[in-house]
């Protein structure tokens, strides 16, 4: 007998899907009604599979679950659980309302895992591309303490902070990026098309050209003759650098170098430390022990160099040292922050004072990001002025010399 795929709703109104064997769709409907499921759609399994996209193509084209969607998921879970909705029904409602096919699959797998007796944190751990290690750890704490509803709210606030910081940095770098791209494009166009045209004119003068002009013409001729090699070398260099950065040693070196970049380095450092302080505060507030909290925080700071320093802090705390001493040994915190950690360590209110540290860093990041364009603009203007000056001298000096020679005659 053929197989049929069905969609229906059970007695609680939840959407269910499955596959049954039967002689026709009527027999399948009768089987579903007998078990308390009202059929919504029944179709032949062969026809459904013929219409389905191949699995490899589905994986390739499937939209990823973004940070905003995880935020909304957290907020909706908090709201539903606060209203007293059972977790299975809450997930069923979110599965129906989700618009991202990948998120629908994830929520469906969460429900299946819960049906099989797994805990929610264990089910989430099966999807590391959607739920980070920190997210899963906090959900686990919420399950153990019975405060899952509050944990989802804290996770929403934490993810909202992450998104806000990223959006601010992107917005601040947008204008400088456009200027640099425009300068690069202008440099390529001038060397490939403009200078060769002037070179033909200068060749007709049969006179010795100034050094600046000879350098510009030589560089232009090199670019015109070797542009395929230059393009291939640029692509190869980008691929090699990206491959190296993906390695453990390369990522560590790059993350350390990012913190030393002029202007941008201090923003990256303060934003990362704000993330550390807020995440550490949230973990302590949720009842995670300091050693485990530091291990979890090291996984979510998104900087291998600082993660290594945080792991050193964890090792120190594990040996019995205070958080203050290990933080001072890390060498990345300002004296004001160390003072606040000292007070928090002594009074037992480290979580609240770390939250204040996070807010301090956030204000600094907000100010730095707001003034980032103003700090970069002078550098861009100087670079643009130097480029225009070199081009102007290289192009107009020969014309100036010829005009002066003609006047002397």
Plain-language structure description:
This protein has 409 residues and is mainly alpha-helical. Helix content is 76%, strand content 5%. It is built from 18 helices and 3 strands. The chain has a 3-stranded antiparallel sheet. A hairpin with a 5-residue loop joins strand 1 and strand 2 (15-21). The longest helix is centred in the middle third of the chain and has 56 residues, at 148-203. It starts with a strand and ends with a helix. The model has no long low-confidence stretch (mean pLDDT 80).
Lateral arrangement of strands in the main beta sheet: 2-1-3
Strand content: 5-15%
What's the rounded overall pLDDT mean? Answer: 80
Largest sheet: 3 strands, antiparallel
Radius of gyration: 31 Å
**Which class of secondary structure composition applies to the elements?**
mainly alpha
User: What gap, in angstroms, lies between the N and C termini?
Assistant: 106 Å
Helix coverage percent = over 70%
Q: What sort of overall outline do the alpha carbons produce when their principal axes are compared?
A: flat
Would you identify the regions where 5 or more consecutive residues have pLDDT less than 50? none
Order of helices and strands: EEHEHHHHHHHHHHHHHHHHH
- Count of discrete alpha- or pi-helical segments spanning 4 or more residues: 18
Count of DSSP E strands?
A: 3
Layout of helices and strands:
Elements: E1 3-9, E2 15-21, H1 25-34, E3 38-44, H2 45-51, H3 55-61, H4 67-82, H5 87-97, H6 101-115, H7 120-124, H8 133-145, H9 148-203, H10 211-246, H11 248-258, H12 264-285, H13 290-298, H14 304-318, H15 323-330, H16 335-347, H17 350-370, H18 372-408
Antiparallel strand pairs: 1-2, 1-3
Helix pairs in contact: 4-5, 4-9, 5-6, 8-9, 9-10, 9-12, 9-17, 9-18, 10-18, 12-13, 12-17, 13-14, 14-15, 15-16, 16-17
């Amino acid at each position: 007998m053929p197989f049929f795929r069905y969609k229906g709703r059970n007695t609680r109104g939840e959407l269910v899907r499955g596959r049954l064997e039967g002689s026709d769709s009527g027999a399948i409907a009768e089987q579903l009604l007998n078990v308390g499921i009202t059929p919504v759609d029944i179709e032949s399994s062969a026809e459904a599979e013929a219409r389905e996209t191949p699995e490899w193509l589905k994986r390739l084209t499937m939209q990823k679950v973004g940070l905003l969607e995880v935020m909304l998921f957290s907020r909706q879970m908090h709201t539903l659980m606060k209203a007293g909705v059972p977790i299975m029904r809450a997930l069923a409602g979110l599965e129906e309302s989700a618009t991202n096919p990948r998120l629908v699959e994830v929520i469906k797998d969460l429900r299946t895992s819960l049906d099989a007796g797994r805990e929610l944190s264990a089910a989430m751990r099966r999807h590391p591309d959607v739920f980070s290690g920190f997210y899963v750890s906090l959900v686990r704490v919420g399950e153990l303490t019975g405060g899952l509803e509050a944990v989802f709210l804290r996770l929403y606030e934490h993810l909202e902070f992450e998104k806000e910081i990223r959006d601010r940095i992107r917005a601040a770098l947008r204008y400088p990026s456009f200027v640099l791209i425009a300068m690069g494009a202008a440099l390529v166009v001038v060397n490939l098309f403009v200078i060769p045209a002037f070179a033909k004119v200068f060749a007709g003068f049969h006179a010795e050209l100034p050094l600046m002009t000879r350098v510009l013409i030589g560089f232009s001729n090199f670019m015109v003759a070797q542009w395929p090699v230059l393009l291939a070398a640029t692509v190869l260099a980008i691929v090699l650098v990206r491959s190296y950065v993906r390695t453990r040693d390369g990522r560590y070196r790059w993350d350390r170098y990012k913190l030393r970049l002029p202007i941008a380095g201090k923003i990256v450092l303060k934003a990362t430390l704000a993330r550390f302080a807020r995440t550490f505060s949230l973990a302590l507030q949720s009842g995670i022990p300091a050693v485990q909290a530091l291990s979890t925080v090291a996984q979510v700071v998104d900087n291998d160099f600082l993660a290594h320093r945080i792991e050193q802090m964890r090792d120190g705390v594990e040996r019995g040292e205070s958080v203050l001493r290990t933080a001072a040994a890390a060498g990345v915190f300002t004296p004001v922050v160390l003072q606040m950690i000292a007070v928090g360590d002594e009074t037992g209110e480290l979580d609240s004072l770390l939250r204040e540290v996070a807010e301090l860093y956030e204000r600094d990041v907000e100010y730095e990001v707001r003034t980032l364009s103003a700090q970069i603009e002078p550098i861009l203007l100087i670079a643009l002025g130097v480029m225009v000056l070199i081009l102007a001298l290289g192009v107009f000096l020969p014309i100036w010399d010829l005009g002066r020679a003609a006047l002397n005659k």
